[in-house]
Amino acid sequence: MLTLSSPHTVGQNSVSKMMFTLLAALVPGLAALIYYFSWGYLINLLLASATVLAVEAGLLALRKRPVGFFLRDGSALVTAALLACALPPLAPWWVTVLGAALAILFGKQLFGGLGQNPFNPAMVSYALLLVSLPVLMTTRWANVEQPSSFMTSLMVIFGDPGLVLDGLTGATPLDYYKLNIGRLTASELTANPLFGPLGSVGWAQVNLAFLAGGVLLLVRRVISWHIPVALLGTLGFMALFFSADADVHVPLSLHLFAGSTMLAAFFIATDPVSAATSNRGKLYYAAGIGLLIYLIRTWGNYPDATAFAVLLMNFAAPLIDHYTRPRVYGQNKPIKGFKADD
């Protein structure tokens, strides 16, 4: 007789299934980025995907781990896709390649691989690039008024010396609004072609596309509602009650529908490895991200702030989990904090 140990039930979700569902959910947002801005996003995705697979395969081989087994789980491709969506679409090719390599090396394999990384790998890479290459990371955003074709994007990314970037690149709505607050009124700011009914032209549609992908993840139960709702709710609350005067602060519509807000809420902050794990902990964790995004956008030097907000709360996730552990079956109260005999 065959004897099996418990548990005897097996969940429907595997790592690879979750990762490829995430990739499928990213498609609407990626398609919107390409349509409204540049084919550079697709080129970055291809560069990042090839790099993460090559670097991960090399590091796994050095660690004497089964290369094929770990590459098939799709986690490296998710990192590549998130990084490609976050990077400027017209950045030089080597920025994307460097970022993808940094994500796998310093964001994942340095800590032992999938399931052991305390920080979101894509955000580790993005933050390192932003601090190290601030000019390239802030001046190569595609101009929504003149979306670049595939060939133009290819020439810009691979450094055609005869190509003039004026007109192809431009400031993001968050950049433009923040830099001109105090100098122009809200009505003058929003008269710029960058802005539309939902706050920003192009970026609003991109965020709605990522929102649609996020709904798919919720329906498929790849993620729970706690992190997206707490993050968007906190960011919305802060913007609504502390940025009511659009002449002084970035308005609510831009906070929610410009930059990487929806990408962060549904795809980045929900990383199951680096996020808090208990349901109550997820609420605190995501609320912290929403609060930090608002604070950094309002008073910091970085207009978007998603990467730094997520990484700071990744630091706090283990502590949040420790103090929000659910009640153990058979005990009257949940265990909170350290005991004298711990």
UniProtKB/TrEMBL annotation:
Transmembrane segments: 20-37, 43-62, 93-111, 123-142, 194-218, 225-244, 250-270, 282-299
Record-level GO cellular component terms: plasma membrane
Topology in the lipid bilayer: Multi-pass membrane protein
Enzyme class: translocase
Modification FMN phosphoryl threonine, positions: T172
Required cofactor(s): FMN
Pfam family, one: NQR2_RnfD_RnfE
EC number(s) from the headed UniProt entry: 7.-.-.-
One GO BP annotation of this record: electron transport chain
Localization annotation: Cell inner membrane; Cell membrane
GO molecular function, one term: amino acid:sodium symporter activity
Record key words, sorted: Cell inner membrane, Cell membrane, Electron transport, Flavoprotein, FMN, Membrane, Phosphoprotein, Translocase, Transmembrane, Transmembrane helix, Transport
Role of this protein: Part of a membrane-bound complex that couples electron transfer with translocation of ions across the membrane.
Subunit structure of this chain's protein: The complex is composed of six subunits: RnfA, RnfB, RnfC, RnfD, RnfE and RnfG.
NCBIfam families the record matches: rnfD
Family: Belongs to the NqrB/RnfD family. Belongs to the alanine or glycine:cation symporter (AGCS) (TC 2.A.25) family.
Protein name per its UniProtKB record: Ion-translocating oxidoreductase complex subunit D
Lineage of producing organism: Bacteria, Pseudomonadati, Pseudomonadota, Gammaproteobacteria, Oceanospirillales
